[in-house]
Amino acid sequence: MPTQLTRPISALAKWLCGSAPVENKVLLMGDYECGKTTFLDRLKFEQVREHPNHTVNVNVETVEYPKGYNWHIWEIGGMVSLPFMIITRSLGKIKYADILAQKGDQKSRQLAWHHLSPATLVIYLHDCGNPADRVPVSFSPLLQDMANIGAKYIWIAFNKQADWGFKRARINTLRQEYEKELENYGGRISGKVLTHRLDAKSAEGTFIVLEDMFATMRDPRDNSPRLPAPGRPKKDLALQRLVEMEIAQDDMDPEVFWEYLQKGVFINWSHYHLIKALYMVVLQSVEEQAINPLPSVGSRETCFDIASTFDRYMNVMSRTSPRWFEKTRHK
Ligand SMILES: Nc1nc2c(ncn2[C@@H]2O[C@H](COP(=O)(O)OP(=O)(O)OP(=O)(O)O)[C@@H](O)[C@H]2O)c(=O)[nH]1
Ligand SMILES: [Mg+2]
């Protein structure tokens, strides 16, 4: 009976369960109607709505890109639903728009503050269709909040380029303005201004934003501090929790487990039991060879021999407890 059952089995469990996906929380921000919902729809559904509703509070979708990387994207809406008729009656149109924008900015700042954490990434969309043609007033307070919270990464991208015949020179001027704002934070915020042609409505350049975030975060040559990952990476923690849960629930004495395995009788049988059984068979083989060393290396038990012993146990069990094998055939 193998005696090393307390040895960690996380490597085997990892092989069995696969790696947990890498999870990233992203805040999608930008001025009112800059195209956030359209951008998110394009990433998630590859289709966009002609007239999306204004986003009140938040709109969340998870996008997997590439496989194994989940981006939980939270669109932060700033729109305040004020009754249009009352405002237009009492105020001029421009004033109405200003008040609405200010209220919207305050609300989205509060929402962003609530959702920002040091591990949050930010995508900030600039609306190229906006005739104001400058860095929006909402940008600087957002950077302040990020710096205060310790959120480090922001990607800025210029949306709505297709319809507006945007010139490179104009994009370059805007890029410099954004970079100037970022410089005020002297390394506390790592911002990147993406100047590629982006037009979420016509699908141009949408995934390049995620691609760039993915490349920045996983590129080992980039020495700048990564997203804060105190201790172990998240994916290992998720896996560790899974393994710990299985182990915690396993109160069967190893002697009993071994006996059941040889007889092929189990009350419960899961992937965890399968891997534990294989682990015990391997340990048994190692122990036996330590006690009774075989005469030459060539006649040592190979992994094929161990596999065939394991197969024998599984065949016994498939006869004695066929219900555990209803969905699988062991070959
Ligand atoms: N030409 C063009 N129009 C766009 C693009 N993206 C969005 N729009 C249009 O801009 C308007 C606002 O788009 P939304 O996606 O709702 O913008 P939003 O930022 O989510 O708006 P709020 O949630 O209200 O702040 C819609 O009429 C869209 O069709 C784009 O890339 N190009
Ligand atoms: Mg929206």
From TrEMBL:
<dbReference type="GO" id="GO:0003924">
    <property type="term" value="F:GTPase activity"/>
</dbReference>
<dbReference type="Pfam" id="PF00025">
    <property type="entry name" value="Arf"/>
</dbReference>
<protein>
    <submittedName>
        <fullName>Uncharacterized protein</fullName>
    </submittedName>
</protein>
<dbReference type="InterPro" id="IPR027417">
    <property type="entry name" value="P-loop_NTPase"/>
</dbReference>
<feature type="binding site">
    <location>
        <begin position="30"/>
        <end position="37"/>
    </location>
    <ligand>
        <name>GTP</name>
    </ligand>
</feature>
<dbReference type="GO" id="GO:0046872">
    <property type="term" value="F:metal ion binding"/>
</dbReference>
<keyword id="KW-0460">Magnesium</keyword>
<dbReference type="InterPro" id="IPR006689">
    <property type="entry name" value="Small_GTPase_ARF/SAR"/>
</dbReference>
<dbReference type="GO" id="GO:0005525">
    <property type="term" value="F:GTP binding"/>
</dbReference>
<feature type="binding site">
    <location>
        <position position="37"/>
    </location>
    <ligand>
        <name>Mg(2+)</name>
    </ligand>
</feature>
<keyword id="KW-0547">Nucleotide-binding</keyword>
<keyword id="KW-0342">GTP-binding</keyword>
<feature type="binding site">
    <location>
        <position position="78"/>
    </location>
    <ligand>
        <name>GTP</name>
    </ligand>
</feature>
<feature type="binding site">
    <location>
        <position position="55"/>
    </location>
    <ligand>
        <name>Mg(2+)</name>
    </ligand>
</feature>
<keyword id="KW-0479">Metal-binding</keyword>
